[in-house]
Write a structure and sequence with these properties.
The longest helix is centred in the C-terminal third of the chain and has 13 residues. The protein has one domain: ph1033 like domains (ph1033 like fold), CATH 3.10.590.10. The radius of gyration is 15 Å and the shape is globular. Helix content is 29%, strand content 29%. Strands 1, 2, 3, 4, 5, 6, 7, 8 and 9 form a 9-stranded mixed beta sheet that branches. With 169 residues, it is α+β, with helices and mostly antiparallel strands.
Length: 169
Amino acid sequence: MTNWLCPIDEANWGIILENRVWGVGDEFRSLLDQIEQSDSLVFCIKDTYELRGIYRVNSSPFESTEIRMLDDTAFPAKITYWVKLTERVMPVYTIDFQKLLTNHDMFQSRRRDFQGQFSKPLILLTDSEYRVLYEIMKKASSVLVDPEGDKRKSWQYYRWANRRGGGYW
């Protein structure tokens, strides 16, 4: 099992919550091919360095043009390669990854690496880095989200859906 940090845009976080998929365009297909089922993806918002959730990959990479994500200019991006996701940990409040990079001993040596690679869709995490992030996010979560992957039972999704004007289901 490999662990990855995935820097994303705020708008695409909503799409990930809604569709439970994450994908890349043609230029990063080789990176997506490195992902296997049961790998963990830690999502972080690019602009604010907020850690938002940990998902587990539950499919092999597949090709689809039905799902759309947004690029940095809010236009639909040409993303055609996807993986399906299962929620693992959703924190109740956002966690400042920038503060972790500067204050936590574990990340001191790789701080510049992380900041310099935020233009890439995937950044490899060591097992010890992942364990630190997992424990921090687990403490910040109200509950671990249901493992069967039923309709969103976490109140974070409810809060997000209501901000968009939608309902819980």
